[in-house]
Design goal:
It is built from three helices and no strands. By secondary structure, the protein is mainly α. It has a domain at about 25-68. α2 runs antiparallel to α3. The termini are far apart.
Length: about 70
Amino acid sequence: MTIDIEPKALEQSATPSHDTALESLSSKERYQVSEHVASVFKDHGLIDSAEWRKLIDVTLSAYADDLG
């Protein structure tokens, strides 16, 4: 069984700035949740290491933007 997931969808699901359910969390908590989601995707073979790194980079960028 193959699961097709668009990279943009993964990025949006793991990026704090795109998830309204995370708005009530602090910047640090949003970063931690997003990092966890990316790691779960990788652990389950939904993404590879390069895609994981990209998601983490996007997550760190969003965290840095939140901090100003």
